[in-house]
Amino acid sequence: MSRTVVLFEGRSDSLAFIALARRRNLGIDALDLVDLDGITNLRTRLTALRAQSDAPRILGLYDAAEGDYVAKILVGVGVIADGAAPSDAGFYGCGRDLEDEVIAAAGPELVLDTLAARGELARFRVFQGQPAQRERTIDEQLHRFAGTAAGRKARFSADVIDALPLERMPRPLDDLLDDALRRG
Fold first, then answer.
1. Are 26 and 88 part of one and the same domain?
2. Which domain holds residue 16?
3. Most buried residue, 37, 54, 87, 149, by most Cβ within 10 Å?
4. Helix (H) or strand (E) holding 6
5. What is the reported pTM?
6. How many angstroms separate the CA atoms of 88 and 183, rounded?
């Protein structure tokens, strides 16, 4: 059986994937999880992986804004036919991004609870009071806050996944995990 490689745009996405697997008590040790450090590295990584003599099965997670780019790359390297959906090859798109999916699945109160557990609720309240934030919805504020400090974005989604009821997990992340284990 060939190995399975799962590609993520960045560390925050792979940490959320690991958190979901842990929450579902599923072993993912047989999977190779790879952070791309940006979706623009997708072509290079896919090409290198597909060139290996024992080419692995490759799956991935991406942001919807990158959907056309991901599809173009997948077509260009021969993973899918022109016009096919990336999900046909195991590449799953998040709405805006994974943080947005997580916030929508959890709801603001649960996200605020996770911020409180991390000792960041007071910082968030100060952030909310900034002039640029006052007119935004709480979901928009939470999304923006997730990326405002070094290290926060990397743990944000995973922390919420750790608190989120299993039946409310973000669909793209859940589908990716199911696919990785089903085919792996």
1. yes
2. 4-96+168-183
3. 87
4. strand 4-8
5. 0.93
6. 13
